[in-house]
What we know:
Elements: E1 3-8, E2 14-21, E3 24-30, H1 39-55, E4 60-65, E5 70-72, H2 77-82, H3 86-100, E6 104-108, E7 112-113, E8 123-126, E9 129-132
Parallel strand pairs: 3-4, 4-6, 5-7
Antiparallel strand pairs: 1-2, 2-3, 8-9
Helix pairs in contact: 1-3
Amino acid sequence: MPSLFKIAIDTGGSFECTTPYSQIYLLSFELPPDNRLTTVFIQAFLLSLDIIEHRYPTGILISTSKIAKFYSNGLDLDHVISTKGFYQDSLFKLFHRLLTYVFLRHRLITAHNHGVPPKLSYSANTPSKVTPCLP
Length: 135
């Protein structure tokens, strides 16, 4: 499967986008040990979404975890508590981006998914319609 790009996360881990078929983008991520949502994770996620949207033809985006046990274990509470403005400056920006993203999106969950907000769950978007759905 051809790799389109890879973004390293400063604290370890990465986001990698591959394309199994034309206009189908598989965005795989890992931030050991359990993909907790931190500022650097969210920044890498947002950058990945921007790259896919602006450099490649519109298609289907599938996100999944490279960590066998977890899709995500939710927020890193220590990080949230110690990071001023985390919700406004990071998490809510991610929610907004996912709700307004122009590609059809799905998550491929092959493992546990604890504490991930519904906004990170399935939603089907077209340029004229946004349909958030609970998992």
